[in-house]
Amino acid sequence: MTRRAGLVLIVASAVLAAATALAASTHGKRGAAVAQTVHFPSADGHTELVGYLFTPTGPGPHPAVVMLHGRAGPYSANVNADCTLVAPDHDSPCNAATLSRRHEMWGEYWASHGYLAVLVDSFGPRGRAHGYGRNTHDDPDRDAVNERTVRPLDAEGALAWLRTRPDVVPARVMLQGWSNGGSTALNTMQRQAEAAPAAARFRAALAFYPGCGPKATIAPRFKADAPVWAFLGSDDEEVSPVVCDRWLRAGSGGPIAVTIYPGATHDFDDPGTARQAVPGNRLAKDDAMTRAADLLDALAP
After folding, report:
1. pLDDT digits (tens, 9 = 90+) for 93-136
2. 3 lies in a domain?
3. Does residue 1 lie within any of the structural domains?
4. Order of all β-strands in the sheet with 48-54
């Protein structure tokens, strides 16, 4: 991998076929354990965030991953329609026991690989735990949780909180986001690259099928000061992989790399039956999960 985004990796179907044998049985199953609910402040200075903590075995300290949900929110679509506020001492069907299968899967995956992972709920603490459907990007209600000016502060709040924990290696906190959360991750890395040298930093970022257009990003040209990897589906029906590929290719710093999965759609790593019935999604999910762990494991301390 070079420092330039020009080395765009388009994974061929023949290569991906081998990845199916690497899929662990936990990739598509709902685990028995329930994540620990935690609370910490956003860097916006006034929002108390809700997080869901997945902890590896052993005393640590561990590397860590901050996970950022997409526009549908962190909770299962089976329960979130009537959810609004998620906060301490407030009873809600949206909670640690009703996280979406994808977020639970990834949290357990990171814990099984020795990473402490926290899924940050940006919506519930702001009364929007129901999330948003497709084609709602211009909904004015989403301004209060947007990926450009609001959610990066939540990611930075999670980073600050993790760095105070004795079971976390402060210099090895990574960022991962999906869709709207993927755009948030890219914006967070942009902010980080423009911040003062003494500011706390994410060690790397993984962005799954992010939106990269001008409505989703904070700068016309992407810049990073740490490794950034984007995972896109060629058949994405919600965001343009071409736009994102082009924007990241023109970026600077990093290194920045893009993987485009042939035949994969938006949400290709969702372990649900509907998404995994698409052959391209099955191959992309298995490869991306293996690749993500390998990429983070290879980072120097």
Report:
1. 999 999 999 999 999 999 999 999 999 999 999 999 999 988 88
2. no
3. no
4. 9-10, 256-261, 228-233, 205-208, 168-178, 62-68, 116-121, 48-54, 36-41
